[in-house]
Amino acid sequence: MLLSASAGRHSSMTFVASRLRQGSHHFKQQPRQSRISFHSSRPSSSSSSSGGSFSNWTKENPFLFQLGVATAKTSAADLMVQTVVERKKWDEIDWTRNGIFVLFGFTYLGGFQYWIMINKYRQWFPTMDRFGKLPLKDKIKDTAGILDAIKMVCFDVFVHLPWMYFPSYYACKEIVSGSTYNPIDWVTNGISKYSKNMKEDLSAMIKLWGPADCVQFVLPVHIRMPFRHIVSFCWTAYLSFTRGAVDPKDEEAVKKKTLRRLSIAD
Fold it and tell me: For the whole model, what pTM was predicted?
């Protein structure tokens, strides 16, 4: 009986000691947990939270983000030319001319060009993503990737820009500043004006976009469109200075068209 009593007391003391050790271990862990919780709450400040939210939004919505950039960029480039180069005051700005670039930046540069250079290029040139991720030393050895990059440059310079970009720009200009509401007239009049300026337009285009494309189409894919928009800002400024002004005859037609629209509304 003494042995059983001693064994009982020993087991009770062992149980109590184990519970004390667990409690002590739990107590020691409490400050560490509170410190972790405290540090993890620091990034939730409003500035870092908003910055992270915007960064995540741009990654999740690349099309919408660059759509806004393309629209704002073309408008800003034209305004810069009008105010800095042409030294116009704000009350002298030609908003019809600026509207041409807003429309073109939104519909063509932000919409169609993104579809061509991301969606369709990915189908037509299957090495695009892989080649873009390679370091420069490996790009030089990648024959298939180099050939696809050359094809992309050729397609942009000899197909996209002369036969899609410029006709679309002149058509957009007719939509805003033309004298008719007929879409067929927008296209035919725009192409007619483009044909008169084609030699000069294509010469300037190749001088800028030839070298720029050689850089753009070896960059990682997620950097390509931002790079193009940077180059395009300079190009849009040139286009605004040389082709942005509305012809006086067209300007008078716009006024008549506006008055006719107001009279119909009344």
Answer: 0.69
